[in-house]
Amino acid sequence: MDRLMSIFKRESAIVPFVAIILGLLLGALIMLIGGYDPMLAYESLISKIFGSSYDIGEALRTIVPLMMSGLAVAIAFRSGLFNIGVDGQIIMGSLGALIVGTQLSLPPFIHALLAILFGALLGGIWGALVGYIKAKRGINEVITCIMFNFIALYLSHYIIRLYMPQAGTQRSAMIHESASIQIAWLSQLMGGARIHWGFLIAIVAVVFYHIYLNKTKWGYELRAVGLNPDAAKYAGMKVPNVMVRTMFISGVFGGLVGTFEVLGVFNYIAINSVTSGIGFDGIAVSLLGGNSALGVFFSATLIGALTYGSQGMSFGAEVPGEIIRMVIGFIIFFVAAPGIVKLLFRPFDKRTKKKV
Predict the structure, then answer these.
(1) What does the alpha-carbon distance between residue 235 and residue 232 come to, in Å, rounded to a whole number?
(2) Which pLDDT value is given to residue 356?
(3) Which pairs count as long-range contacts for 182-188, CB under 8 Å and 24+ apart, including other chains?
(4) How far apart are CA 144 and CA 129, in angstroms?
(5) What angle do CA 41, 67, 271 make, to 5 degrees?
(6) In the prediction, which pLDDT does 348 show?
(7) pLDDT range class, residue 14, cuts 50, 70, 90
(8) Cβ-based neighbour number of residue 250 at 10 Å
């Protein structure tokens, strides 16, 4: 039994790694078919990421929302829920941060902290509503999440146009400087990269996710409900409460994405007809990371780096940025279908040869 467990753990670590290699190879093949130079493209991608201190800072800035979004999706997955409404929770988090950032005048540290907390709270409430409707009314969370995404989008537009518009533009007013979470001195050192305290908060969130999931009673209940809600109910666990609580935490993670973007990157909210899509990217991050804390950290780093580096491919090798999205899609496909990866390695498996 111990040997089987060690083999399983080894395979669970190897499959994502092999999936990444296969995704990059298939991406290179598509470039060759399209008449592009894959070596130059990948070289340009790496150069863009590590080309300067500014690029490194902006790459880190790109990774942060993916990491938080991945955590939001992962914790819901572990409880058996599919949180496809992270985009809506991001919007509510950004709206909460904008309200505090524009409507209040407070000392710098207190102002920024209150804006983060209020944004996270709104995101959490938005997620908890989905969990409540699922737990109490039995309505599928996917349908509820999709509807809540649109409600959040247009509700934020309405509130911004009514109370916080920037005259002559399609965006909100700017937040007060005291609410900003940008790290000014580090940004200057890195050539103006939009570095903010959200990166450190994201690291804390990853640690919190691991401890909460694996070291606490609530985390045990969450995993039990995710594996078998009927058995968890029979064991005396309050399944509806677990669902609501989990979706609240998931919403907090999503809401923090919005607060970081408003307080640390843009300092305003643009009025767009579509959501950011970061919540859907979080699904890819969560799947690639196997819903584990460390996995989400590394998968967000990979996808964020590829996303930012794709700009280098466009300018350095004239390769369309959409190809890197295809590469990410290939990687997720192979992770979601590990049997294909294992099938490729079956001829090299000594155990298989012995059986034959």
Answers:
(1) 5
(2) 46
(3) 182/263, 182/264, 186/57, 187/57
(4) 9
(5) 85
(6) 57
(7) confident
(8) 32
